[in-house]
Structure formats: C-alpha cells, structure tokens
C-alpha cells in the first residue's frame, strides 16, 4: 500500500484552473448486510430497537491533491476501481467531498459515455436538446447543427433514427460531437473516445487540442493508453484512490505498464 503521494508544487508561471486539495470521497452503501430486504427483518429490527441495516463505506478517493493549469490535457489512468471516474465526478461537482475540496476557475462539464441524452429520441433531436442543455440558444444551436452532424459522422440516415438504435460507439461519437460544439472551462471526458474507431480518435484528438487552446483544461479517463499518450500533456496514475504518479505521459505510462504487467 502506497501512502506517500507526490508533493504539490505550484508553478508560478502558469495559470491554475483546477485545484484539488486533500480530496477524500466516500460512498455510503446502505443495506450492505444480509437480510436487508424482507419486511420480517425490518419488523424484527423495530422490535429489537436496532438501527438501519448495516451501512458500508467505500473510500474511493483518498487524499488526492494536484493543480491543473490552463491548457493542460490530463489523462487519468489506473486499474479498475482505482477511483478515476469518481475523481472526475468530484471535479464536476457531482459528489460531495468527505474531506478536502475541489476549486475550479470556471464551469466544469462532464462528458460521460452515459451522459444524459434521450435514447428514444432521434440523434437530431438530441443535438438540439444537448445544445440547449449546454446553454446555447436556438440560433446558436442551428448554426452548430451541421458541424455536429459532420463531426459525429454517423452512418447515412442514422441521425434521424432514435438513439436506442445506435451502437455504443455511435452514441459516444454523437455525445462527444455535441459536447465539443461549445467551449468549456474545464472539460471532463470519461471513456468517450474508447469506443470510437481510429479515424474518430484522430479527429477527437484534434478537437481536444482545439478545446485545450480555447478552453481551460481537459481531463480524460481512458483504459486505452495509446489515446492518453497521444492526446495528453500530463498523466495522473491513480492506485487505490491515491495518486501514485503525476508527470509526463511517457514516464507515467511506462511505470504503470511495468507495474501492472500490461
Ligand atoms: N455509486 C457507488 N456506490 C458505491 N461504491 C462505488 C460507487 N461508484 C464507485 N464505487 C466504488 O468506488 C471505487 C472507485 O470506483 P470508480 O468507478 O471511480 O473506479 P474507476 O477507476 O473509474 O474504475 P473503472 O476503470 O472500472 O471504470 C470502487 O471500489 C467502486 O466499487
């Protein structure tokens, strides 16, 4: 178990956009014990004056600290369950810290593979919904519509089909295309590129470069280390909720690959 995490040093020459300070995230899972569901066991608890069924805590992020600067594209890597998605959600403000905090200069936007689009509606209706949800007005949405369709580059005709007929890759492309139609102060991308094909990955990479220039910072969680290495200027390796290493993509990925035997 590694308790020592890298020391955070402020780079005065750059403009910080996200500061994560001693962040702890704890999930509480209620009813994790046995006999949780039955009415009889609930009645017995009342009779015995016992409290709630057993509550289990999952300490997913354990004292993580780092500073992201404007123009950073940070890849987050680590084995399954190491806390990558939890960290992104916390930066997006979707999970309350148990301790520590996250400070961002600007609005973070989380683009997950499961981002909330309406699966029963067509791709084109979802583009309009997605743009409005991101705060664009109808006129701006109309202006960006063609560009989004072109970027998503779905099979002909599919833009008018309901999204529940899309493959996971097609859905991810459309979600990414919608999110990329606007500049974001802090853009958080969870595995969206993992399901795309090589051509889409190339275009996404170019788009992320563009977003980095216009926006503040981009965070990218992916299991595909090639995508991370090609797209990011910095990589954070999470191990059991702690930062194991934070640095340039080549060295962090090399150490991670050696340690995990991948
Ligand atoms: N909603 C939840 N309730 C309880 N525990 C959770 C919840 N979401 C995640 N966890 C736990 O938190 C820990 C970190 O999960 P997280 O999804 O952040 O990992 P990850 O690194 O993104 O994993 P993966 O690579 O599999 O996507 C895991 O132990 C997981 O079981």
TrEMBL record:
Q: Which residues cross the membrane?
A: none
**Record-linked InterPro entries:** AAA+_ATPase (IPR003593), ABC_transporter-like_ATP-bd (IPR003439), ABC_transpr_TagH-like (IPR015860), Bact_Polysacc_Export_ATP-bd (IPR050683), P-loop_NTPase (IPR027417)
Q: Which UniProt keywords apply?
A: ATP-binding, Nucleotide-binding, Transport
Q: Name one Pfam family in it.
A: ABC_tran
GO MF terms here are: ATP binding
Q: Which CDD domains match?
A: ABC_KpsT_Wzt
What are the residue boundaries of the ABC transporter domain, all occurrences included? 41-262
What PANTHER family would the database entry show?
Answer: TEICHOIC ACIDS EXPORT ATP-BINDING PROTEIN TAGH (PTHR46743)
| Membership in a protein family | Belongs to the ABC transporter superfamily.
Provide the protein name: ABC transporter ATP-binding protein
What is the originating organism of this protein?
Actinomadura yumaensis
Q: What is the lineage of its organism?
A: Bacteria, Bacillati, Actinomycetota, Actinomycetes, Streptosporangiales
